[in-house]
Amino acid sequence: MGHRVEPGLYRLGDPTPDSEVFASANYTLSFDALRSALDGRNAWILVLDTKGINVWCAAGKGTFGTDELIRRIESTGLAGVVRLRKIILPQLGAPGVSWQEVVRRSGFMVEYGPVQARDLPAFLTTHSATAEMRKVDFPLRDRLVLIPVELVHVVLPAIAAAIVLFFLAGPTSSLAAIAAVLAGTVLFPALLPFIPTSDFSTKGFILGTIVAVPFAVSFSTEPVLPFWAKILAATAPLLIIPAVTAYLALNFTGATTSTSRTGVKKEIFRYIPVMALMAGSGITIGILLGASRFMGLI
Amino acid sequence: MFDSYTDTTLKFYPDRCINCLRCTQVCPHGVFTQGNDHAELAYPASCMECGACALNCPVQAITVQSGVGCAWAMISAALRGKNMDSCECSCGGGEDSCCGQQEKKAPPCC
User: Fold this and answer.
1) Do residue A261 and residue B71 have CB atoms under 8 angstroms apart?
2) Residue A59 pLDDT more than 60?
3) Where exactly are the structural domains of chain B?
4) Which B residues, 65 through 84, put their C-beta within 8 Å of a C-beta on chain A?
5) pLDDT value at position A1?
6) What is the interface pTM, i.e. ipTM, of the complex?
7) Contact call for residues A44 and A68 (beta carbons, < 8 A)
8) Over the stretch A145-176, which tens digit does the pLDDT of each residue have?
9) Cα A191 to chain center, whole Å?
């Protein structure tokens, strides 16, 4: 487990009993962010056992939490090390920590620092955070980092679908399957704030429709097909691609920093039936066209 | 009609509030702001139900059903016939998570 730090009490520089105490997760990146933000200072760092998970995720699970904090204060003998009974916690640890319970059970006061460790020097000058320091955002860089994670989950089914479609319906259909998946896993995270509407599913429908149009045009201009088959062939990608992209878009909610469970649940009940209906009708059309070709109708 | 994120389970009881402002310090979306004699629930629709405010309110002036807004986790729970609300976030694949040992998302998933 190369990304874990041994839980316990660490010295940064040459701390005295009057130096500040900062809490962190035992995830290397969380610990390193704190260390570099406090570079040049003398401080104590109390590393909690969060099973190698970052502060926010661990707080959501409760491993960065009241019980672990109190346990770690006791096991490190912190009360005998520092004079001031106060620990500075990262703000994103708050979903797992109840400050009033920590005070009651350990005697240590909890102070919530900023969201980002890099804002700590500014925070420490006044021990107050600006509204900006307290907010979580989701910038392009953070969204792009997630693309490989999203891709890994769909790469096998996507390749399987592309291969099946290649033999059943030809290279254009195969390409359409790849395009639908890339739209949902690569384009969607990158373009998230720029696509209109606030629901992830509707954003996905919009993006998927744009991606589907070239395929619809390509199928509708297939010269060998009779008119009715052209229309059907053009309709299929317009039904299937937006459904696939919207489904993948909806699944991106878990990776974002802002979606509430209530909202996501509402999206699931509202749009999953629509996606299923669209994908189902699109696939039915595809099968009908395939059967027609097999029977020599087109 | 096309905004599923206008309502949440967040409830604020200003008459209980002692104006300690902890909620304004822990909320990552600026849902609460400083008021005159109590905190103000200024942007309720921005709430992501992380639960930090309710957990850190010393007088129980805030309640919220906290949970992670992850469609992937909820859909897999529903498909396995489990309760969608009991399902934990799957990032890191904790023992209690509905997704078992599978590693799902890197930060900042939840």
Assistant:
1) no
2) yes
3) 11-63, 68-110
4) 65-75, 78, 84
5) 55
6) 0.90
7) no
8) 999 999 999 999 999 999 999 999 999 999 99
9) 14
Other CB atoms within a 10 A radius of the CB of residue A251 amount to: 25
The DSSP string of chain B is ---TTS--S-EE-TTT-----HHHHH-TT--EE--SSS-EE--GGG-----HHHHT-TT--EE-------HHHHHHHHHTT--TTTPPP-TT--TTSTTTT-----TT--
Cis peptide bond prior to A193, omega within 30° of 0: no
Per the listing, tokens 């700590």 go with A120
Q: Best interface-test mutation with B: which of A261, A269, A271 has the largest number of B CBs within 10 A? A: A261
pLDDT tens digits, residue range A186-221? 999 999 999 999 999 999 999 999 999 999 999 999
pLDDT digits (tens, 9 = 90+) for B59-100: 999 999 998 889 998 998 889 888 887 655 555 443 333 333
Cα separation values, A159 from A155, A163, A165, A173, A279, Å: 6, 6, 10, 12, 18
CB of A92 closer than 8 Å to CB of B28: yes
Q: What is the pLDDT of residue B85?
A: 76
CA distance A244 to A287: 18
Judge contact between A247 and A184, C-beta under 8 A.
Answer: yes
Q: Which residues contact A290 (CB under 8 A, 6 or more apart)?
A: A168, A169
Q: State whether residue A262 sits within 8 Å of chain B by CB.
A: yes
Domains and CATH numbers, chain A: 8-126 (3.40.50.11600), 140-294 (no CATH)
Nearest to B84, CA basis, from B96, B95, B98: B98
Tokens of A187: 């384009």
How far apart, in whole angstroms, are the C-alpha atoms of residue B107 and residue A54?
Answer: 7
Entry pTM: 0.90
Q: Which two tokens stand for residue A140?
A: 């392009």
**Stretch A105-114: mean pLDDT, rounded?**
98
What type of residue sits at position A269?
F
B49–A260: do the CB atoms touch at under 8 Å?
Answer: yes
What is the spatial distance between Cα A135 and Cα A104, in angstroms, rounded to a whole number?
28
CATH number for the segment(s) B11-63:
3.30.70.20
